[in-house]
# Entry
Amino acid sequence: MTKVKVCGIRTLEEAEWALDAGADAIGFVFAESKRKIDVETAARISASLPTHLLKIGVFVNETMDRLEEIFHLVDLDYVQLHGDESVRFCHTINLPFIKAIPVKEKEDIAGMEDFGGEMILLDSGKGPHRGGNGTTFNWDYTDSVITPQHLILAGGLNPDNVREAITKVRPYMVDVSSGVETDGRKDRMKIESFIREAKSV
# Structure
C-alpha cells in the first residue's frame, strides 16, 4: 500500500488531522514559503505526535550546520532537500535525507539515483515556487525509472487524481500540500478524502 505524506503542516490540529486520517508522514517547511513554520512551533508539534508518524523537514539550499541543528531540535526523521544541493553535498550529509528533483522534461530525471539517500522525491518543476505549486508533470516520464531509492511522487496531487497517479507511477509514497487546502489552509475533509483515495489503490 502506498504511503502518504501531508506537507506544509503549520499547526498541531493539522498534524492531528493527517494522523487521524492515516497519514504515514508529515512535512514541515523551513524554507521561504507561505507554508513556512518556525522551528519552535515545529518542535512543539513534533513532541506531541507518536513516533511512528514520520516528521520530514523541507529545506532549500540550507547550510549543513543549520540542517543538523533543526533536525535535532525538531526531532525530524528526514531532511528533504528541495534546492540546488549537489550530489557531492548529499554524499557528505550525515542525516537521513530525501533529495527532491524538479521535473519539467524527461531528461530531468536522468542521474537522480546519483544523489544517494533512501528516497528520491519527484516534483513538478512548473510554477514560481520550489514545490507546493499545485502543478503536475508528465507521469509517463517515470516509465523507465529504475533506482535503488524509494520513489516519492509530488506535484499537483489531489483527491481527484491521486488514484491515477499511483496506478501509473507506483510510488513508494505520495506527497500532497496544496491539493488538500482550501483558501491556502489545510482542509480536514480534503486530507481525509486524499488519504482514503490513496490507500484504496
